[in-house]
Amino acid sequence: MLECVVNVSEGANTAVLDALRVAVGPDLLDVHSDVHHNRSVFTLVGENAPRALTTASLRLLSLEQHSGVHPRLGIVDVVPFVPLAGSTMDDALLARKRFAEWAADELGVPSFLYGPERSLPSVRKDAWKTLFPHIGPQQPHPTAGALCVGAREPLIAYNVWLQGVSLSDTRDIAARVRTDHIRTLGLQVGDFTQVSVNLVSPEKANPIHVVDAVKQHTNVHHCELVGLLPDNVLRMIPQSRWEELDLSEERTIEWRLANRQR
Question: For the chain, what is the mean pLDDT?
């Protein structure tokens, strides 16, 4: 089985988000929306739901009308395929290729590929400068931009919210806690600032590590799990800290798979 964690550049329009939920049906495990990022993270299973979500997003949204604090290359910005139990990275790589070819043939949208060959941050940095789409048109789609289609192991997306900390100081803190396993951005989100985090090796660095690292520099207002996390990672963290870290058994991939409606 493959998980696909699609990031859509819309986090505020509830009518649109409701329509996107309907489009993916029972293959939806979770949706996390953020108004300030203007971004929603749809956790899906299989290959059909990401295509349905992408088709509906292109029908309902336009990059020309989008604004938000999170960087993005497209309306459907990130489409990573993740091997779960019974699947391999080779399966994810094949799904990545099939999806990008489908997006080019059916929608006319170009795809940048990331995974073992290159990281998502390197794609964001170099896209349209020294790096051009690997599959599809060699220019952005007029309303959809471009897709970043990936194959990766499970990661955890996580936000650490700060109050009374300047954006420059937040960016400095983000840089200080950044490691090979912890990718960070410092962002302004309304009256707060935020260390926005991707924990790319969650068995080596999980939410407790990044929160405690931030606490060495400033007080943390609250924490936010974006999407889901693997159950084995949750079990590494003392249950006494789950509430503080915005974690629970119900927020694991395994719990959602076992309890999803078919």
Answer: 94
